[in-house]
Amino acid sequence: MSAPGKGASAHVDQFVKGMLPPAELMPDMDFSGTKALASYPDRLNITAELLTKHIEEGNGDRPALHFGDVTWTYNDLQDKSSRIARILMNNMGVKAGNRVLLRAPNNPMAVACWFAILKAGAVVVATMPLLRAKELKYIIQKANVTFALCDLALQEELDAARMDCKGVLTSLKSFTPLGDSNIQLAHLDWNMQTGDGSFGYVNTSADDPAIIAFTSGTTGDPKGTIHFHRDLLAAADCFPQNVLPIKPSDRTTGSPPLAFTFGLGAFVLFPMRYGASTILLPIPTPDLILEAIVKYKATTLYTAPTMYRALMDMVKNANLNSLKWCISAGEHLPKATWEDWHETTGIKIIDGIGSTELLHIFISAGGGAIRPGSTGKAIPGYQAKIVDDEGNEKPRGEPGHLAVKGPTGCRYLENEERQRAYVQDGWNLTGDIFSQDEEGYFWFVARGDDMIISAGYNISGPEVEDCLLTHPNVFECAVIASPDEERGNIVHAYVVLNQGGDASEYTAMELQNFVKKNIAPYKYPRAITFVNELPKTQTGKLQRFKLRER
User: What angle do CA 272, 34, 44 make, to 5 degrees?
Assistant: First the structure.
């Protein structure tokens, strides 16, 4: 395939480029923070840096992915992803720039498909395994997704979404976790058995879109965030190099889904940048995580504070001698959790804050630089400050809005209103309230919006409200975060029933099951309080802060 001129886009389909924010609303992108960032070439396909490079250097036989009793080497992953890329382009008709939806739990074929889509020069739109048809439909239509690769076990909801997206999602192939099934329904598995793995990769520009990662959203609908090939490499070159130096012998495991940028970095970008390997768990329960650590002698664990609390009693009698690093993100890490884990295991948890908009962690601290209770400092390559409502930097010690900039930044897919709110004067305003001390450490205060962070999941309160309001017995409702020792927060719904409604435990259970059926189950309200009326302003706006005060 002929290479475009220096810096030119390789995308035949320019849809995503056309949906980028206008230039004046783009974040300031600073690549001068480290030598590695400043030396990126104009032509870049991330698969070359994470996969092909290791094989060209003679390290193809190193383990890349562990799954159950099966281990794939870098050679295996290269072969399978190349076969899939060829199928995408030759059998399905994927062209560079097309969006390909990827739906799967954490398994080797999910990773192979991720690489294959990028090798073909297309754009990955990965989706959480628990999403329902309604949520998938929105993503498909918003990103104008034409093609899909789906784990056979998760195809039912995607088929339902596809029925409502006729003329948009036109081509779908299913697969099994290792791509070796003889089940006739696993189309991709069958197609991979012919041809070879000699396909290379489309010579994309460093600034060609590589992924569209969807947030949970604070106002109901999730927002698509666009990240380039250059951004993926920058994320891999910032956090690991400066917080936990990864070696090829390291083995990583944990709980975040690959569709969550926390999981993408933890299990693909970071280990594969440095030739290490990942232990994939499709259902990351506490016992299975602990089993993986012991069985594979994992060196690195990525999960949320909720999971560390769930593991606390279990790890007391476990052999964790191999474990060197524990990383926490997805929600604020309480000091008490940090201290309990350190006392139990002797390991200092590395806390970090990132966002889907900025791709991955931008504030953290490791080793002797850790301050229990603090998130850390801006990692090299990023700048961060605390500002007031007008964007003026606040004195040290005073809480305010967290503003960040560096080699990654927010680019919403066709959402100029939210772009204006998130990016101001080139800085990314994350929606978090922090303070910064005299040493430069950042301390979390609160979320600045209605996002509910529960057990590491970002849940939009308004989305849950919208779902509840479609139930025939609900007149109106308000959803807030309610503090919970085990999960950090839980979803708490205050519900006004229609006249004659029965405010009983049975009705509460009925509403919970209704939410589970219509949107991702982890979003359901674990607490429901029936009230006669909701607090409102004179103009009719809900006063959620009064509910939080309860």
Answer: 50
Could you tell me the two tokens for 113?
């498909």
Answer for the pair 456, 331: CB distance below 8 angstroms, yes or no.
yes
Helix, strand, or coil here: 431?
strand
pLDDT at residue number 219:
41
What's the burial of 262, exposed, middle or buried (CB within 10 Å: 0-12/13-18/19+)? buried
H helical segments located in 151-228: 155-163, 187-192
Q: Is 477 exposed, middle or buried (0-12, 13-18, 19+ CB in 10 A)?
A: buried
Mean model confidence pLDDT for the chain = 92
> What does the block give as tokens for 153?
């076990």
Kindly tell me the sign of the dihedral angle through the C-alpha atoms of 537, 542, 546, 550: positive
Instruction: Name the residue with higher pLDDT: 490 or 337.
Output: 490
pTM for the model stands at 0.86
The two beta strands, 427-436 and 400-405, are: antiparallel
Length of the chain: 550
Model confidence pLDDT, tens digit, residues 65-112: 999 999 999 999 999 999 999 999 999 999 999 999 999 999 999 999
Q: Domains of the chain by range and CATH? A: 45-204 (3.40.50.12780), 451-549 (3.30.300.30)
